[in-house]
UniProtKB/TrEMBL annotation:
Pfam families: ELFV_dehydrog (PF00208), ELFV_dehydrog_N (PF02812). This is Glutamate dehydrogenase. The record marks 142 as: Important for catalysis. Keywords: NAD, Nucleotide-binding, Oxidoreductase. Substrate binds at residues 66, 90, 345.
Amino acid sequence: MRLFEATQHFFNEAADQLAVHDSLRDLLSTPLREVQVQIPYETDSGKTACLVGYRVQHNRARGPMKGGLRYHPGVDLDEVRGLASLMTWKAAVVDLPYGGAKGGVVVDVAKVSERELERITRRFIDGIHDIIGPDVDIPAPDIGTDQRVMAWIMSQFNKYHGFNPGVVTGKAVEHYGIPGRAEATGRGAGILALKLMQRLNRDPRETSVAVQGFGNVGSHVARFLSEAGCRIVAISDQYGARYAPQGLDVGQALRHVAQQKSSIKELNEGNLISNDELLEIEVDMLIPAAIGGVVTEANMTRIKAPMIVEAANGPISPEADRYLNARGVAILPDILANAGGVTASYFEWAQNRQHYRWNLQRVRSELERTLTTAYDEVSAEADARNISLRLAAYMIGIRRVAFATSLDGMN
Ligand SMILES: NC(=O)C1=CN([C@@H]2O[C@H](COP(=O)(O)OP(=O)(O)OC[C@H]3O[C@@H](n4cnc5c(N)ncnc54)[C@H](O)[C@@H]3O)[C@@H](O)[C@H]2O)C=CC1
Ligand SMILES: O=C(O)CCC(=O)C(=O)O
């Protein structure tokens, strides 16, 4: 099942529980606007190449649309549409004044130079600058994009519309960003992972964790949980995984990746295993923090972790979700588990608009407060109705968006 169909499935399950009527259901599940643009750019060898980029704006009932920008060879319109809809429910679950959007460019960042990446980004913004903006739609980082890309987005947007740092979040601290945004998604997933352990009466110091993906999100969640006393037994990137049942040294892995610009595969610790094997090891908590669609009908019966934290977007298919729920696996859903990123983006955006800045301690404490409130609401809803955390999170998100839509009027 493709990502948009999967998100629609989760949406419909919750909409059934809420008895959302058909016309409102159509309105809430149909994206507001979908844009595909051609991205012609000059390669370093002087040739003209052409890529495709997308921006899908899903819903704006609760505020300007918000969501990251993915640079990955697997990007297509269906994926971006699914990711945009996840943003709508995510922003509502954590009660941010945002709607949902997402963008993507079909490109392998490992195969283009930094100068080419800049040209690609600027040409992409040429194509979408008139549909984004600080009060309309605000991009941010996702797979393959980082603070350099955010800087080019801001710079190119400003050429058309004048200085406005609030057009994009996830910027460098020295360039209108805020301390704590870069770590926020992983840290947030870590804070919520501890809540899930608490819910199941697990001691973090007796909990083993496997993390798939060691980019922005995976590296920060691994570090946070390692500092909280968990044993990080496996980590990976797209090239392979390292596994050590007695635990890996996360600090050493972070230095290895940062200093040697090398992959996890080359790490001199643990056994080399594949990403598929990582998902199936005997571990207390599994944290997918890379791409979507990694736990499906094909491998669900071999997943052994009793707790899963979806730091990635859409890592578990509906079939696998149903199967794992029936087996009693506790799953913290993406629309809550990785909401720390958009929460810190909201802090950055609000501060950009008012030209002030919080320090790291304030960002961290507000992040924790926001996520804890959302977690408490979701777990209370799940307990009261005896339903999964995912269904509860969707119900809260849909209820909020539906209410805003009804206040707005449907005509
Ligand atoms: N960056 C953010 O603030 C947010 C990111 N997310 C989600 O978190 C996930 C990771 O995003 P980032 O860490 O930002 O991306 P990133 O680009 O910084 O890191 C991605 C990681 O995944 C690995 N990877 C890529 N393809 C893979 C494959 N086929 N198999 C296994 N590993 C693979 C890469 O090697 C890298 O370690 C994505 O699902 C994204 O949508 C969710 C919320 C916010
Ligand atoms: O920080 C943001 O605005 C959005 C992050 C994002 O793309 C996501 O939560 O999936």
